[in-house]
Amino acid sequence: MFVKGKKLLKHKYFLLDYADSLNSTFLYFMKLTHKLTYKLLRYFSKWLKTRSHYRNQIFSHKLSGFFFHCIPIRKHVAASNIACSFPKRSLQWKRNVLKNCYQFFMHNFIQFFSFPSSYFSKSISIRGKKYLDGAIKQGKGVIIITGHFGAFELLSAWLGYNGYPIVGVAHRQRNRGSDQFSREQREMSGFVHIFRKEPIEKMYRVLSEGKMLGLVSDQDAKNRGIFVNFLNQQASTPKGAARFHKNTGAPMVFITCAWQSSNKYEINCERIVSDPHDTVKDITQRYSTILEEIIKQHPEQYFWWHRRWKTKSIQNNG
Q: What confidence tens digit (pLDDT) does each residue in 180-208 have?
C-alpha cells in the first residue's frame, strides 16, 4: 500500500498561514541570537525547497562527508557505541556503519528542512497498519512508542497527514528560534507537541480523549529510568510508556520508518503484548528488544550520537 498525501495540500497551507501569523509576535520576545537562528533556518528551508530532490540528495551527501571528516562532534561517542553494540564485527565494518550513518541522517536533516515538498515526493508503504487502526478503535487512546531510528520525522509527518490524532512528547530546545522552526516543520502536518516538563495530566488527557501519545523511549533516563538489556549493555531507559499502559490500559504500538531504497520508505507497526502480571521492567524490556532487533537489521539508520549508556547500573533493579 502506497500513501499519497497530495489531497491534503489545502490543510497544509492553512497550517502554514496560521503559523506565519504567529511568527511576528513570537519573534518579538526572542533573544537576538535566537531570532537570527530562526531567520537563517527559515531561509535555508526556503532555499532547499527551490531545488530538486536529486540536487538536495547530492548536497546532503557532500555535507555528510564534510561533517564526518571535519566536524567530528560526538563522533567518538557514536564510534564507541557502535563498537560496544557489535563487538564481533570488524573495524572496517564499524567504520562503514558510522560513515553511512552520517550520510543517512544528513539526508534526513535536509529532508526535514524541505518539508512539506520532500514528504510528498516519497513513496511510503506500511506494514501492520491493522495494529495501529485496531488500537485506536478500542477508545482508550494509544501509546505510540518509537526510538531515534530511521526517518522518524517522516514518520511523524505521515501520522499527521493521514489523520491520526498524534500528540508527541518532546524536549524543548534551548535556542527558542531553533525550537520554533522545528515545531512549525512538524505541526504543518497536524502533529501536536507536548513538552516534557509540562504537567503529566496533559499526557493522561491525550489518552483519555482517545488520541495517540507519542513517546521516543530510547535515550538515557539517568537515575529516573529503569535498567534493561539493550544491545549487550544495561541501559537506563524511560519507563513512562510502561507506566502509562499500566495506569490506563491503553494499547501500545511500536512504530518505525525505515529507508528501503531511493525514495521508498517502509513504516512498520508492531503490537506490544502484555498481561496484568507484567512489571514496568518487563514491558520496557519488551519494546527495547523490538528496537534492538530493528537496529541489527539496519545499524546505519540508528542515531548513535546519543550517550545511550551514560548512566551505569549499580545493581540490577527490578
A: 999 999 999 999 999 988 899 999 999 99
Element counts in the chain: helices (H) and strands (E): 12, 10
Cell matching residue 227:
535498567
Q: Which residues pair with 143 in a beta bridge?
A: 213, 252
Contacts of 307 (CB under 8 A, 6+ apart): 77, 220
Distance (Å, whole) CA 259 – CA 57: 14
Count Cβ neighbours within 10 Å for each residue of 14-53 and write b for 16 or more, e otherwise.
Answer: ebeeebeeeeeeeeeebeeebbebbeebbeebeebeeeee
SS3 content of the chain, % helix, strand, coil (to 5): 55, 20, 30
Instruction: Judge whether 124 and 269 are in contact, CB under 8 Å.
Output: no
Domain ranges of the chain: 2-301
Q: What is the pLDDT of residues 114-144, one digit of tens each?
A: 999 999 999 999 999 999 999 999 999 999 9
- The beta-strand segments (E) located in the chain are 2-3, 123-127, 142-146, 166-170, 192-195, 212-216, 226-230, 233-237, 252-261, 264-272
